[in-house]
Amino acid sequence: MSSIEVKGENLIGGFSRRGLNGVVRVNNPSSGELLPGEFGGASEQDLEEAANLAAEAFTTYRETSLERRAKFLKLIAQNIAELDDKLIERCIAESGLPRARVEGECARTVYQLQLFADVVSEGSFLGVRIDPSMPDRKPLPRPDIRTRNIALGPVAVFGASNFPLAVSVAGNDTASALAAGCPVVVKAHSAHPGTSELVGRAIQKAVEVCDLPPGVFALLFDPGYAIGQSLVAHEAIAAVGFTGSRAGGEALMKIAAARKRPIPVFAEMSAVNPVIIFPNALATRGATIGRAFASALTLGVGQFCTNPGLVVAVEGKGLSEFLSGASETLSTTSPAPMLTSGIHSAYCKGVDRLRSHQAVRLVAEGAAGNGAFARAALFKTTAEAFLFDRGLQDEIFGPVSLVVAAKDWAEVKRVLQSLEGQLTTALHVDPVDYDRARDLLSHLETLAGRLIINGFGTGVEVGHAIVHGGPYPATSDGRTSSIGSLAIERFLRPVAYQDFPVELQPQAIQNDNPLKLKSRQNGFLS
Amino acid sequence: MSSIEVKGENLIGGFSRRGLNGVVRVNNPSSGELLPGEFGGASEQDLEEAANLAAEAFTTYRETSLERRAKFLKLIAQNIAELDDKLIERCIAESGLPRARVEGECARTVYQLQLFADVVSEGSFLGVRIDPSMPDRKPLPRPDIRTRNIALGPVAVFGASNFPLAVSVAGNDTASALAAGCPVVVKAHSAHPGTSELVGRAIQKAVEVCDLPPGVFALLFDPGYAIGQSLVAHEAIAAVGFTGSRAGGEALMKIAAARKRPIPVFAEMSAVNPVIIFPNALATRGATIGRAFASALTLGVGQFCTNPGLVVAVEGKGLSEFLSGASETLSTTSPAPMLTSGIHSAYCKGVDRLRSHQAVRLVAEGAAGNGAFARAALFKTTAEAFLFDRGLQDEIFGPVSLVVAAKDWAEVKRVLQSLEGQLTTALHVDPVDYDRARDLLSHLETLAGRLIINGFGTGVEVGHAIVHGGPYPATSDGRTSSIGSLAIERFLRPVAYQDFPVELQPQAIQNDNPLKLKSRQNGFLS
């Protein structure tokens, strides 16, 4: 078993040391008991050191060979896998998530790192383009221009509470930034500090074994917001990866935009992920869809960015059957602990807001629970009320959803037109509904980053084609994905080399192609 | 000859009509005479109409077939070419640029549109990725996920004064946005309103002939800043392309960031494009480099974003020879008119600032001129003074450059370390200098978007490998290029389709590949 232990220390420059700026402690959300471990908060000076070391490491790290960088990512994956039960148990204790889910998430985290190792080895992220010289061109000769992508610079990463492994210290943002050649400074999420430290130490160990500059990775604890904010404002930081609330993401965007040198913030923030049930599907299998929907809604205590928080359909017998099916499944749902008491109380507040809304009625509830245990809930309103009160489309993080019943299909379309940007949209259709679906798709494509037929957005497949993104406020920049191999593009920028002698060319753009890269020659893929 | 004429009208929704919100008029910068034509400024209502029509057109236009969109871009190119002398002469009169330059720029504008027509036809900008389903995967089956890029939405374009054709109404931003499938609303530059209208009408005619929705293109005149600012703030606008001053770009960035739904601004703003002369090159051919430098500096009256406004080298005999060579060429440079009297007075102010700086001395000047004619100038300072006063690295737009003499090579490096982001950096080297160059390249890659060996940044080659971009403040976002085929990526976003039946799939992602596109299958290029 791994020798890595939780010590409550920040990880900076290859060392670990106790922070003296306040303390992060954490409760077990299942039992309420205080977990062992006190995590000393980083000071501004700690941050300064971590950021400057990252800037220093950048020069070397961004030019590591593809082979070496891929090996590094694989070693991180291996070190995390070797943490085994030590990590799984700490993560269960800190998150309240069930073992199977945490084990699955750990496997996904390991897979994600391996995927990026493959992306690095394959090398096409370097985006090589070569327009050879044309010395005889008239009226002027054409110079030789060759382009490759280089890493953007040190990246600040803010993990999510709801994926303490796959979207945290060694999660999607860290994996894609390290793959691109960017050092990473992580602000540890205060909901899972022990998990963060274990994973952070697994990365730090890989940095050391691969003999990389120690500034390639740092992990900082912050009992409040000040260190995270200073990190985004720090001159050495070139980009930010964030997954969390809209308020949190927007706060970081403001800091990044107000810098002397503004930097991009890739924030994944807020979505209600509408589920649209088309007339024929609703008429023929409303109850079945309702049961599947309630399962998706309560999966992981509804704590997914892609949770189906909104259902849109036309009022009628089919919708009644959908509601019956959903209610049936929902009422058998046991309460389960939410990630933190803060998340739980925000959930209760959101549910109470719906409960007391005069145009909204409660359809079904799960069993009640104690402490930070969430009671699932399903509400219903009319399209008219929904269109009138924009507050009804705000995300409530947790196992609650709002069914919007429209008078007719035209009203369904008006509801969809009124929505803000989303991560996902699910369409439940039968072949008879295809014409209607085709007619809507044009709008839905501009609404969300991922469209799903006869399924739900929950369950993000880590791969090459996945898009985990979407128009504002689903993310701060819909032109990217935060999950899957596309994510590496966020942390790269192109550099052109004009009339460079081969002695000064980086390997990626050399004619004899020592890295065996695919490239574009005069615009054509070779 | 083309039937298109200057009428002083805004172009909105397939119609042209006189704006009633103030008037734009323009002088011939060569003669000072007022040119014919009064261009009525657009009102907020005109803007509202143009933006809403663009949003309406977006739905149809973004799904035009690749063939039809390529044909549209080629027709714009043809319509511009057919404007012929009518356009060339108006452009010469409005810009003061010599005929050969304007003809060359017109050819570049036409070529640029054709290049993007080719990019559209080739289709790989659609970025198709397919991860097929794996129904037997354990523990869960893998869904079928297919991704393509779609257009971002209507784009606001602000052209540059210094390229009234190639970086204006039908310039790089417009060509790449239209290629991506985005409607365009152009705020006409007030320095060349007649040129803008002629080109705008050429686009409008192509929209009509291709039977595209009229909202695909609009052109608005604005005697002040209000309409341009409202355009960036308008809900229908999804991105902004801008080339101009740092103050202008930063003002638009602030508006875009403060929107309810922030949007990306691709602003190309400010650079001094350092020229580094390495010791051996300086010792063996200082005078020759000096002469070539002075020619590059005064080309187009120094009115290029890539103008070499800074030279860095070690003090000594070689640098004296460089200065002699440069002075010799500079002193034979005739004064030439700048684009506008405003640009000329800003230039004079900048030159006076250097002239009266106690640590800066004048090395050489071109012949003096009248009116808006610029007198080229070369100044010299020490590395010590340059490092002390950061104001010395601010761009002065026009034919002026500052030579920074360092005590030794270490000081050259300190000067380069102190610089802000740049569009280009030129290295003058002989093979003996290669080790020194190699040592510096790592920093220079993070400093600029394009590096040039033994040449100068002036002259941007429109192609596939070109990068016209660079770290802040050269541009607002160094991850992109505003010129060349890479520019299309600014206006696209990926959408994933999960478990879509073929009947609902867009053609780009269908298995039988009717568009004959290259794609990534499980990450591998097919």
UniProtKB/TrEMBL annotation, chains A, B:
Positions of the Aldehyde dehydrogenase domain: 24-462
EC number: 1.2.1.26
KW Electron transport (keyword) present: no
Catalytic function, reaction form: 2,5-dioxopentanoate + NAD(+) + H2O = 2-oxoglutarate + NADH + 2 H(+); 2,5-dioxopentanoate + NADP(+) + H2O = 2-oxoglutarate + NADPH + 2 H(+)
Family statement drawn from the similarity comment of this UniProt entry: Belongs to the aldehyde dehydrogenase family.
Organism: Rhodopseudomonas pseudopalustris
Pfam annotation, one family: Aldedh
Domain of life of the organism encoding this protein: Bacteria
Key words of the record: Oxidoreductase
Official protein name in the record: 2,5-dioxovalerate dehydrogenase
GO molecular function, one term: 2,5-dioxovalerate dehydrogenase (NADP+) activity
